[in-house]
Design brief:
The complex is a heterodimer of chains A (490) and B (331). By secondary structure, chain A is an alpha+beta fold. Helices cover 28% and strands 25% of the residues of chain A. Classes of the chains: A alpha+beta (490), B mainly alpha (331). Chains A and B meet through α9, β9, β11 and β12 of A and α1, α5 and α6 of B.
Chain lengths: 490, 331
């Protein structure tokens, strides 16, 4: 197939999601063929208009995130690339199985470290890594949340290497964000690419809020429980998502100051007096939840909330203490956890990761092949790609990591797969990752088909985070026959 | 409904209504003044009229060019009552209560906000994106229409629950205030001073008064005659079936407060009951003859004070901290 039009000059460097190299050129992978053909037909001005329309829709609908460190917050739209990512059903089923397996193990691990600590006893995970973690909450030792489920909502970041193998890059099991963009991206692409979307059996994502609220309601044994979303407030970077989810689920979006604890029960301050709260979907980290127990300077939390939780009078999702499972220093042990708790081999491998001490000789020999990450930060903050640093700074970064090895991990630099992405009038390869979302309740896990594909928009960039110049893509899981389609539809 | 959200919605209602009223006022006054040549002959008088209406006590440098006065009234970041400031605040309130209002309502407020920001050149960044000065009538019409789109979405997409009632309590309180303020600055005699019964009126100012309250056609329908000051005042202050009249707006406000059980709910009168009672006595218990006999402007000023006091009493309700858990027996 001749690649012309907007694909003119497209070059595949490593593993490209949409194209494979063949003698004398590129060939679209079979599951990408309809999308590539559709985009090939678009004239440059049509593509430019498509991008403008998407940007207009995002701005007019106020689909934004807030950049941190800009006073009271600077609202930005998260760029949505019109070219969707396509995942064939067979590939998705394997990912789904791997994600469910991983979340099961992480959940078992959180329960274990706050109860018998068998995995520490067996020496599979070193004690000091757990007990020195800033995410370890000794206050919840011995507390079992309803159904023994800790990680109700997980966002697991996946990347692909040069050969197309999927790896887990990190686990987000405290307050993972991004799912609102998955839903909004689909709505926008349905508006701007109706023919293409209609022509393919793309699995829908629309029922996520229903699934989430149903799950949250099962966390307590109360008739018609009152569920709320707890947000840090309008200046939080993910405030749009908090408001979006609360509205979609038809529940209250509350701030800490809207809640009060009386006699170890949590109440809302409403116009008609105090009303009992049964379940809190919190979008605030543990340490800010209750100033009486955790950080005393927290203005976001609710004094006494922890005691109500400990008494089982309010359920919190995700449970307090799950952060121990997404500490980056714990991450290298997840494959061992899967074997330990489930007796299975991991379906999805980890990116090769070591502590700075273990990695020291290789790090000094081939620094450009490694990334240094802080164990306790997210959003791409503090990530150091040694390849991009001048010699002197590179050496300094390595010394800093070796001086405080518990604060850093060293990962092999993954090339990340590339994906056609609209840059001006042309489609160009840009690096992508994928954050699928896993909901887990008493009855098991469910994975949202697709997830948030994040794309590093600047040429050559590896950082896909929204706070660092990243954009997003809609992710289409294509079934040969759509299992989610209402019956009676062809 | 959460108290914090009630507070946000109450003020969202107030700021939206204020923006709507200011847009109506500026649009009507400017068009009328242009049509009758008033802007050409007495630009200073017109400027004073606009500033009296906005009357927010700020020390603004007042230009002579009427279009620049409109620019201040619409886009000033310093004048607290500029349209831009009102819409920015309504937008902040809507954002804080975003999960409680319909998506359409939020998006219509957001678009109104973007429209104002775009006009002020803050969005779009290029100087070419700023407002050409000759386009004010068109701009004011667009702003007014954008305000009414919000009203339309509110009317059609929000359940008649506490959220709706609180938002409309804010709207109706503000509407009553704005009608009083409009009467106060437009009810002038031929020399531009406060009108007293028997004095000749400034027909342009009184025609503008009706149009500023979208009451011109209502007046024609109800009174079927030329603009007479007594009839105009009766319509704008005491005609219950006209939704922008003082009595009409206060009647609607009463319905909202009763539905919210903020009025006539307890065995002992609350501060809201007391404030509202005072206002009601004035609005329902007075007639135009008595008001004209005792002094129109004294009445307007007292009603403005009563409305402001009622607004403060409602603020107190939303912000109060004295709450107790219900006695459900499940402890």
């Amino acid at each position: 197939m001749h690649l012309g039009g907007p694909f003119e000059g497209y070059v595949v460097l490593g593993f490209d999601e949409a194209f494979e190299a063949q003698s004398g050129g590129l060939r679209p992978r079979p599951h990408y063929r309809p999308v590539v053909e559709a985009f090939s037909r678009y004239a440059p001005d049509v593509l430019a208009r498509l991008a403008q329309t998407i940007d207009l829709l995002l701005r007019e609908q106020g689909i934004t995130f807030t950049l941190l460190g800009h006073g009271e917050g600077l609202e930005r739209t998260l760029p949505l690339d019109p070219f969707p990512r396509v995942v064939p059903a067979s590939e998705w089923r394997r990912l789904e199985a791997g994600l469910v397996q991983r979340v099961r193990a992480l959940n078992a691990f959180v329960h274990d470290v706050y109860h018998e600590a068998r995995i520490l006893e067996a020496g599979v995970v070193p004690r000091d890594v757990v007990y020195t973690s800033s995410q370890y909450r000794r206050e919840v030792r011995g507390i079992t949340p309803p159904g023994g489920v800790y990680v109700h909502i997980a966002g697991i970041d996946l990347v692909r290497d040069e050969d197309g193998t999927y790896y887990v890059l990190e686990d987000n099991v405290r307050v993972p964000s991004g799912v609102s963009y998955v839903l909004e991206n689909r709505t926008i692409l349905a508006a701007v690419l109706p023919h293409l979307l209609r022509s393919l059996p793309v699995r829908p994502v629309r029922d996520y809020p229903d699934r989430l609220v149903s799950l949250l309601r099962t966390l307590v044994e109360v008739d018609d429980p009152r569920v709320v979303v707890l947000t840090p407030g309008v200046y939080n970077s993910a405030y749009f998502e908090h408001a979006f989810l609360a509205r979609e689920m038809g529940i209250d979006l509350v701030e800490g100051r809207d809640l009060v604890v009386e006699d170890e029960a949590v109440y809302l301050r409403t116009l008609r007096g105090l009303e009992r709260v049964d379940v809190i979907y919190r979008r605030i980290d543990d340490e800010f939840l209750d100033p009486l127990v955790f950080r005393s300077d927290s203005l976001l939390g609710v004094p006494g909330l922890f005691f109500a939780y400990r008494r089982g009078r309010v359920a919190i999702a995700n449970a307090i203490g799950t952060g121990i499972a997404d500490d980056k220093a714990i991450y290298p042990y997840v494959p061992a956890m899967i074997r330990f708790y489930l007796g299975e081999d991991p379906i999805l491998p980890n990116v090769p990761t070591e502590s700075p001490e273990e990695a020291a000789p290789r790090l000094r020999r081939r620094p450009q092949a490694y990334v240094i990450k802080p164990v306790d930060r997210s959003g791409g903050y503090g990530v150091t790609l040694l390849r991009l640093l001048p010699e002197e700074e590179r050496r300094r970064a390595i010394e800093v990591a070796l001086a405080e090895p518990r604060r850093w991990i060293v990962q092999r630099l993954m090339e990340l797969s590339t994906h056609p992405t609209l840059c001006g009038h042309h489609l160009r390869p840009r690096r992508v990752d994928l954050r699928p979302f896993v909901l887990t309740g008493r009855a098991g896990s469910w994975v949202l088909p697709g997830g948030l594909t994040r794309v590093a928009l600047p040429e050559g960039s590896y950082i896909v985070n929204s706070s660092q110049g990243g954009g997003t893509k809609d992710t289409w899981v294509i079934e040969a026959r759509n299992p989610d389609a209402p019956s009676g539809r062809p | 409904m959460l108290r914090r959200v009630a507070h946000e919605l109450f003020w969202m209602g107030r700021y939206l209504e204020r923006a709507d009223c200011i847009a109506r006022f500026l649009f009507a006054q400017r068009r009328l003044a242009l049509e009758v040549g008033y802007l050409a002959h007495s630009p200073r008088a017109w400027t004073d009229l606009v500033l009296t209406y906005l009357g927010d006590g700020t020390e603004l440098e007042v230009p002579d060019d009427p279009d620049e006065v409109v620019a201040i009234a619409v886009l000033s970041k310093d004048a607290p009552s500029s349209l831009l400031r009102c819409v920015e605040r309504a937008h902040e309130n809507a954002r804080s209560a975003r999960a409680s209002i319909s998506r359409e309502t939020y998006e219509s407020v957001h678009r109104l906000f973007l429209l104002l920001r775009q006009m002020s050149g803050a969005v779009g960044a290029t100087p070419a994106g700023a407002m050409p000065p000759v386009e004010w009538s068109f701009a004011l019409q667009r702003i007014g229409e954008a305000c009414r789109v919000v009203s339309g979405y509110l009317a059609d997409t929000v359940v008649r629950d506490d959220i709706w009632q609180v938002l409309h309590a804010g709207r109706h309180l503000e509407r009553a205030l704005q009608t009083l303020r409009t009467v106060r600055c437009c009810a002038v005699n031929g020399e531009g001073r406060p009108w007293r019964p028997g004095e000749p009126i400034d027909p342009v100012a009184w025609g503008g008064l009706l149009r500023s309250c979208s009451a011109y056609e209502a007046y024609r329908k109800v009174y079927r005659g030329p603009v007479e000051p007594q009839a105009v005042l009766e319509l704008l202050l005491f005609y219950p079936a006209f939704p922008r009249s003082l009595r009409g707006a206060v009647g609607l406000l009463r319905e909202n407060l009763v539905a919210l059980r903020l009025l006539e709910a307890g065995w002992r009168p609350s501060p809201v009951d007391l404030r509202f009672g005072r206002l009601q006595l004035k609005v329902a218990g007075s007639g135009l003859d008595g008001v004209l006999r005792d002094g129109l402007f004294g009445f307007l000023d007292e009603a403005l004070v009563d409305l402001a006091a009622l607004g403060s009493a409602l603020d107190e309700v939303f912000l109060t901290d004295e709450l107790h858990p219900p006695d459900t027996g499940d402890q």
